[in-house]
Amino acid sequence: MFERYKGGESALLVHVFLPQESDIEDLKEFEVLVTSARIEILDIVTTSRKTPQAKYFIGEGKALEIAEKVKELQASVILVNHTLTPTQERNLEKLCECRVVDRTGLILDIFAQRARTHEGKLQVELAQLQYLSTRLVRGWTHLERQKGGIGLRGPGETQLETDRRLIRHRIQLILSRLAKVEKQRNQNRQSRNKADLSTASLVGYTNAGKSTLFNVLTNADVYAADQLFATLDPTLRRIIVDDVGEVVLADTVGFIRHLPHDLIAAFKATLLETQEAALLLHVIDAADPNMLDNIHAVEEVLFEIDAHDIPTLLVMNKIDLIEGRQPSIDRDEEGVPIRVWISAQNGLGLDLLFIALKERLAKQIQVCQLSLPAHLAKLRSRFYQLNAVEREFINDDGSFQLDVRMPSIEWNRLCKQEPDLLYLINTQNNN
């Protein structure tokens, strides 16, 4: 139902310089987007306007120039680096006699190519259908009404109405399936909360190195590539952080400027992993000259999904591309880590990242002395498994005297799992 690109297509790119946007970098990023969609760039047409034109967005004279270029270069599609209204898109197609796709349509197509899991495909299809529902008119100008007559009468709908009804039905079906996915994710999150597991979520601009860092930290094999939107499907793994214990690390979809609202809505279930995190690891390509704009774009999306108040640790990645830059931790006035300089590709500074994680995630440390009877030797072995025993003495009666030091998270979890420990603590406190 949704138009998909085929490998080998050739495109004419169109960009309008508007006063309120960072135009040059936006155009370069659009070229990367087009390349990511496996489309050949024939030429780039640019123009300047104070405000978009209502009919063509780009102005009538420039639209005629584009129509001539399409015939001259035999382009198969016009890609516009802006969000067009359905009317503007139709008008350009009619004038140029060529398919026109705006920035939102291009991003949706890249997402459709990248989605690998069933959930990811559902989310992309939902965004595509919501986008397509406003653009149905262009495909049905030749079918004003269904045929009448004996045996040929339809339900009294135009073809357009029929298609909109079918799309609405499909959207409701996808929403119900995604609701089940969201319910399952909520159950998983509740289980993690009951187990006192902290969650750290990787966020950042697309192609900042999130998946590479995720693979290095978790020894996972998540798909990572030097391209936009290499990761769409969220992946969760557990890592061990000193004085914190097990932490769930989540790899999420990358953000981009002017990320379509339909995509943000469609990926709600995925982005909940970000909203529920105890700490956000904002991965930044420190070697990117457009770094500050990228940070601002990520912060805008975090604000839109109501995740802007979550504590954040900046991870300045790709320092191997910056001459003279060494791994380090930047701290605020209170000595709290706020920024870590690393290279996920080369493994530089990962030890510093774990130190920063420990300091940002570690809550109170439980320190106590326990006297374990001989019959609780199994509990003693649990303390050793958790590397929580600092000193041990064996008493004359065969009981074990332990000096224990461990994160409060691990301590609370152990108390829930071992009723004997809770009983022992209460008994010793009463004595």
From TrEMBL:
Q: Where does Mg(2+) bind?
A: 211, 231
Taxonomic lineage from the root? Bacteria, Pseudomonadati, Pseudomonadota, Gammaproteobacteria, Orbales
How does the annotation summarize its subunit structure? Monomer. Associates with the 50S ribosomal subunit.
Recorded GO terms, molecular function? Answer: GTP binding; GTPase activity; guanosine tetraphosphate binding; metal ion binding; ribosome binding
Domain of life where this protein originates = Bacteria
Taking every annotated instance into account, which residue ranges of this chain make up the domain Hflx-type G? 198-365
Q: What does this protein do?
A: GTPase that associates with the 50S ribosomal subunit and may have a role during protein synthesis or ribosome biogenesis.
| UniProt keyword DNA-binding, yes or no | no
- Provide the protein's localization: Cytoplasm
Q: From the Swiss-Prot or TrEMBL record, give the protein name.
A: GTPase HflX
Cofactor(s), by name:
Mg(2+)
Going by the UniProt record, its keywords in alphabetical order are: Cytoplasm, GTP-binding, Magnesium, Metal-binding, Nucleotide-binding
